[in-house]
Design brief:
4-stranded antiparallel β-sheet; alpha+beta; about 290 residues; single chain; 11 helices
Length: about 290
Amino acid sequence: MKPPPFDYVSATSVEEALEALAQFGPDAKLLAGGQSLVPMLNLRLARPSVLVDLNGISDLDALRSENGSVRIGALARQSAVDGSQLVRDRLPLLAEALPYVGHFATRNRGTVGGSIVHADPAAELPLVLTVLGGSVVAASTRAPRTIPAEALFVSHFLTTLEPDELVVDTVWPAAPPGSGYAFEELAQRRGDYGLCIAACALTVRDGRIEQGRVALGSVTDRPLVVDVGLTGAAIDAATARAAGEEAAAAVDPPGNLHASSAYLKQLTRVLVERAVGRAWRNALEAP
């Protein structure tokens, strides 16, 4: 398989990349890790007239702690983030989810920013960013803007980014004291996209949930935060089961080659129940 013909721009700075995007607009595609884009090119599902290679930009892969958040540069490789002690300490949910992202070889090339802006509803990193209430920083030849994750994802492979915008940073709120997290995914094979993915983020004060969020992917057209009534609750088996029921009622996944709609709703119910129960236990054990 060979891609359609395209012109090639190798950017060595953010400014060069933005100039190319401003010039070519929707006809340009950005190349970072290429783990999603290259197969799409070879299958002729993407036909850009210009490919803008970002790999020559040296300052977009940093990880740093800042103002209660962890900022991860858009070009940070998933394997580097997976091996980061900062991420394990401050972003336990991201650390738990990263091993589910593809395979070791693809994580070596795949980038955090690339996975997020690709906006696959079955991808793990967009879901984690959404449930944590994170955001992305988008640069352009105009003023940069910060886009909350819940305002970024529109539908399958569609975001609110403008054609001339480039995500340069991702911002992940760090775990506060008394927080607990859990990530659940079921796939036919490890490394495949999950039939359903669920994540839960809780903050517990005095034996009750002060803030609780559950988000779903794969059974929806984008990472979706669902209200399952966690705030003020103390989790036991019945409460976790009720949260799963609420989550299943909030989605209407179409059946596919691998699972019926009824099966996917049941899977949603089970994974959310597991995630809520485990996040609660983790919060109680947190320092």
